[in-house]
Specification:
The protein is of the alpha+beta class. The protein has a single domain (about 25-490), classed as Cytochrome P450 (Cytochrome p450). It has helices at about 1-5, 40-55, 55-65, 95-100, 140-180, 185-205, 210-230, 240-245, 255-270, 270-280, 285-320, 325-335, 345-350, 350-365, 400-405, 430, 460-475; strands at about 70-75, 90-95, 110, 185, 370-375, 380, 385-390, 395-400, 475-480, 485-490. It has a five-stranded mixed beta sheet. Helix 7 (about 210-230) crosses helix 9 (about 255-270) and helix 9 crosses helix 11 (about 285-320). The protein is globular. The protein binds protoporphyrin IX containing FE. Protoporphyrin IX containing FE binds near residues 145, 152 and 454.
């Protein structure tokens, strides 16, 4: 059972490095503390605290302290008034051990629970339940998951050259902006770079074949993505307008229908080869292939990388005074020289510090902070210090920003950014068993039998290439609040 909890048989069984935990049988059985409050009122109060008065990190932390437990009952948004069909009751799991139950597909199921009990309308995805909404027991999940793994395998030969050429354009634009006006925002060039690079690798299509898609494809994806998940997103600056207008109801698909249809037409026309493969090798229909491709491109890849790479740039900026830049630059140039055509998956695998920095960014800034799963049957859930009874149908909610600070696992200053935490010298390889950004451990394998991100391997490698490219191109860089204010080009 413990080996299964990590989602893959190849993974080290879940037992925090030290001190070794008591075996589940020796842990006390405890009633799950917390509660859901009065009907309607309880969920509304929790929602206001979650979005407005506390914000998600404080919301979970305060309850953890109040109940003296990393496992407790609470409500999470969206809730009343216009989410009548959505049940906000969850059981929060906030330590590494209890969180890992989310990966055991024998005891949990993931049908329609990507963002808790709330699911955006399937109108946003061509009336299909795309891969992310399917449980592993559904045959369609196997077909589409294998299709997504195949896309990554086949595109691995063009992945690095496409990344580098798109990075060249991104940083040329940033250099020009810094030279002209003294600073450059990273957001827009980053989104354009990601859209170009990911469309090439995932759809096999060059956006420049359609002027409108080339200039606005990234904005079309932003709107389509943002509007469907708005009821679950904390912006935190517009209250009380945010509660009234963004978190009280779902926005209809027709607001972004025109743009979405343009993206569909583009994929249909330019992604013929990959669509054909979906049909012949994975038995999907043309329409299933198109809408799943768009979800993988827009939601999984473009959405995930946008958040992650902004966090990566921000961490590079924040860590400047620690001497990180010099160390990264030395490692990159020692291993791969100063020319970007020497960069490859193999070369960055050899850059221990670059990789550790990437993992530490994923630990403290997981791009998808919350993960959910529903109990497939009654089972006993174990935390570090107690056992709890979970009933079939109950929804588990893990909030990674707290889980990834579990002091029993990340023992050394768990809340501090230590860029060399994952190096061999610090036992970093062992810690990868507990790095969960991909809805599974970093040492696990994404397969059709689990719900781990298909790009679990390639995401950190791509981030390592992004960092290596940066420190080949520049001797130093200054980044603050998403703006690049100075670049010192490598001589
Ligand atoms: C930084 C970028 C990315 C992040 C942060 C990310 C994160 C995640 C997470 C957290 C999940 C699990 C969601 C859940 O069920 O709770 C997931 C699932 C998935 N991701 Fe990624 N992802 C990224 C990039 C990609 C890319 C490039 C692909 C391209 C193939 C991809 C394909 C998928 C697929 C197909 C699933 C669904 C897996 C399943 O249903 O079994 N992801 N991703």
């Amino acid at each position: 059972m413990m080996a299964k909890m990590t989602g893959s048989p190849s993974v080290t069984p879940l037992s925090p490095p030290s001190p070794s935990p008591p075996s589940p049988s020796s842990l006390p059985l405890r009633a799950i503390p917390g509660g859901y409050g009065w009907p309607v009122v309880g969920p509304i109060i929790d929602r206001l605290n979650y979005f407005w008065f506390q914000g998600p990190p404080t919301f979970f932390k305060k309850r953890m302290e109040k109940y003296k437990s990393t496992v407790f009952r609470t409500n999470v948004p969206p809730t009343f008034p216009w989410f009548l069909g959505v049940n906000p009751n969850v059981i929060a799991v906030l330590d590494v051990k209890s969180f890992s139950h989310l990966f055991d597909m024998e005891i949990v199921e993931k049908a329609n629970v990507l963002v808790g009990d709330f699911m955006p309308s399937v109108k946003y995805t061509g009336d299909f339940r795309v891969c992310a909404y399917l449980d592993t027991s559904e045959a369609k999940h196997t077909q589409i998951k294998n299709f997504s793994l195949d896309i990554l395998k086949r595109s691995s030969t063009i992945w690095v050259p496409s990344l580098i050429s798109s990075l060249d354009s991104m940083w040329d634009k940033i250099d020009a902006d810094v030279a002209n006006s003294g600073s450059a925002s990273s957001f827009l060039p980053m989104q354009q770079f990601l859209f170009r690079f990911l469309t090439r690798c995932i759809v096999g299509a060059d956006p420049s074949t359609s002027p409108e898609i080339a200039s606005s494809g990234h904005i079309m994806l932003d709107k389509w993505l943002g509007i469907q998940i708005l009821p679950t997103v904390n912006i935190g600056i517009l209250q009380p307008l945010e509660e009234l207008f963004l978190h009280s109801f779902s926005y209809p698909f027709w607001l972004v229908k025109g743009d979405y249809n343009k993206l569909v037409q583009f994929v249909e026309k330019e992604g013929k080869e990959v669509i054909q493969r979906a049909q012949t090798e994975f038995n999907l229909t043309e329409q299933e292939a198109i809408h799943n491709l768009l979800f993988i491109l827009g939601f999984n890849a473009f959405g995930g990388f946008t958040i992650f790479f902004l966090a990566l740039l921000s961490a590079i900026g924040d860590q400047k005074s620690t001497g990180l830049h010099e160390k990264l630059r030395d490692e990159v140039r020692q291993k791969s020289g100063s020319n970007s055509n020497t960069l490859s998956f193999e070369s960055v695998k050899d850059m221990e510090l670059v990789q550790s920095f990437v993992y530490e960014t994923l630990r403290l800034n997981p791009p998808v902070p919350s993960q959910f799963a529903r109990a497939r049957k009654d089972f006993k859930l174990t935390s570090h210090d107690a056992v709890y009874e979970i009933k079939k149908g109950e929804l588990l909610c893990g909030y990674q920003p707290l889980v990834m600070k579990d002091a029993k696992v990340f023992e050394e200053s768990p809340a501090t950014f230590l860029y060399d935490r994952f190096t061999r010298e610090k036992g970093g390889t062992e810690l990868l068993n507990y790095l969960y950004w991909s809805n599974g451990p970093q040492t696990g394998s994404a397969t059709a039998a689990n719900k781990q991100c298909a790009a679990k391997e390639i995401v950190p490698l791509t981030a390592a290439l992004f960092v290596a490219y940066l420190f080949q191109r520049y001797d130093d860089i200054t980044i603050s609040s998403g703006s690049i204010t100075a670049v010192e080009k490598s001589k």
